[in-house]
Amino acid sequence: MSNKRVLVTGGAGFIGSNLTDALIARGYKVTILDNLSTGEKENINPAAVFIKGDIKNPEDIEKCFENKIDAIFHIAGCASTIKSFDDPTMDLLTNTLGTVNMINAAIKHNVDRFEYASSMTSYGIPEKLPVKETFNTRPIAYYGITKYSGERYVLATGLRTDLPFKFNATAFRMFNVYGRRQSLTNPYQGVVSIFIGNVIRNEQVTIFGDGIQSRDYVHISDVANAWIGALENPRAYGEVFNLGSGIRISVNDLVGYILKAMNKTKKEYKIVYKDARPGDQRHMQADISKAAKLLKWKPKMKFENGMKDVMDWAKEVYGK
Ligand code: NAD
Ligand code: UD1
User: How far apart are CA 127 and CA 135, in angstroms?
Assistant: First the structure.
């Protein structure tokens, strides 16, 4: 499909801007729709057409179709579990209504390829680990409910037989994505960059709960390979895929790892434990065999190398 145009919603944010860069590097044209609520202008690839607008607003979405769009990567969303509890209406309207609006626009403009940023929070508390795509989906965070509802809208649209064309949908249940451009200052973004930002500024690190909870961290370059590799692969149509590394790391170990890599010791560093936050899943680990089988996808970035890259970037940002 190279040389065709992909509409990337959320293309000024962490995942969306990295995916935009990877698409452009592979010869695609990109239009970005983003309201810059958490995304940043500096992240926007200059080769992309940028439309400042809101996925909650169909008139803003309409502006993206001045150029013919061949596929949509729907990535814009409220990414924070905590914000979903603080303001459930905002989370619902952004993640669920925003997705319905994007589907409506795709149908109106005959866009037959749609990839959606779903989340491992769709699972809630898994019956066992690692988690397979066939497991129950019972989200326990409001955020997980809205991400999962978006996923169902997208995949159910793919099952419709009343449309003039086949809507080829794919949902990626991403686990904890990390990499360059994940905000170092926004306490509502992912824990890897929050901790790196804390340590580089010499601030205290806060661990919510006992720190034994664990997550599966996947590097943004691997996520980009999966999304772009699936774009023209019919085996991805109508499917949902876990995107993780398959490796589980506790929050305590993550802090220890970052401190050691930055030449600090855990004993001397100020680490404060606070109550666990609502909707927090205890342990998470992806079974990635489905993506390996159907998409021939495997994460390539080793945790040590991915973390080194983020820390190098953070040092560049802070001039260290
Ligand atoms: P991010 O906050 O960096 O990116 C979200 C982008 O969407 C931002 O640029 C923001 O300005 C934009 N946006 C938000 N609301 C919008 C609206 N109403 N209209 C237009 N643009 C809007 O977060 P991220 O970590 O890059 O997450 C991107 C997506 O991936 C989110 O939908 C999130 O739910 C999902 N996701 C993230 C992870 C992760 O580990 N980061 C894992 C699974 C799923
Ligand atoms: C993250 C993403 C979410 C995505 C999900 C999929 C963000 C903000 N959240 O959710 O979009 O759908 O992965 O895997 O990007 N923690 C601390 N101290 C801190 C910050 C966090 O102890 O300062 C803990 C949290 O309580 C949690 C763990 O670290 O137990 C991970 O938190 P976080 O990165 O915020 O994300 P998730 O809730 O896993």
Answer: 8
Pick the ligand that lies closest to the CA of residue 32: 1
Per-residue tokens: 50: 């940028």
Q: Among 14, 78, 80, 81, which residue has the most ligand 2 atoms within 8 Å of its CB, making it the best to mutate?
A: 81
How many whole angstroms separate alpha carbon 66 and alpha carbon 69? 9
- Which of these is catalytic: 28, 123, 143, 148? 143
| Cα separation, 180 vs 220, whole angstroms | 8
| 32 and 159 in a common domain | yes
CATH of the domain at 228: 3.40.50.720
Task: Give 167-222 pLDDT, tens digit per residue.
Answer: 999 999 999 999 999 999 999 999 999 999 999 999 999 999 999 999 999 999 99
Told to judge if 143 belongs to the known catalytic residues of this protein, a careful annotator would answer: yes
Model confidence, pTM: 0.99
Element holding 271 (H helix, E strand): strand 271-274
37 pocket-lining for ligand 1 (C-beta < 6 Å): yes
Q: Which long-range contacts (CB under 8 A, 24 or more apart) does 100-103 make?
A: 100/153, 101/55, 101/56, 101/57, 101/58, 101/61, 102/9, 102/55, 102/61, 102/72, 102/74, 103/153, 103/154, 103/157, 103/167
Q: What is the domain extent for residue 208?
A: 179-215+247-281+301-318
Q: Which residues contact 176 (CB under 8 A, 6 or more apart)?
A: 120, 190, 191, 192, 215, 216, 217, 218, 244, 284
Residues 254 and 209 in one domain: yes
Percent of the chain with pLDDT over 70: 99
